[in-house]
Specification:
Layout: H1 4-23, H2 29-45, H3 52-71
Length: about 90
């Protein structure tokens, strides 16, 4: 059982991590999902009725949605070789 002070620290860590993840450029999905996981764990210790499975499922859902949304904003990097694809033998 967590004490109230431990719960406060966990929730504060989650909020700060979420703020840093949102303000980081270029946007990093894994930073946001990690912050979200920490924040949800902190809120659960304050009485939010979420199980570990529900928290994990929610974080996975957010990761999938962000991956789909951000996919259109990713461009391929420049070619690192002058060889055409498939001719490296």
């Amino acid at each position: 059982m967590k004490t109230f002070q431990q719960s406060q620290k966990l929730a504060a860590n989650g909020v700060i991590a979420l703020l840093v993840a949102v303000l980081t450029r270029p946007f990093v999905v894994s930073a946001l999902t990690g912050a979200l996981s920490t924040a949800l764990t902190g809120m659960a210790s304050f009485g939010l009725p979420l199980t570990e499975v529900q928290t994990g499922a929610f974080v996975m859902l957010v990761s999938a949605v962000l991956g789909l949304v951000l996919r259109s904003n990713v461009s391929p990097g420049p070619a690192t070789s002058s060889y055409p694809p498939g001719s490296h033998s």
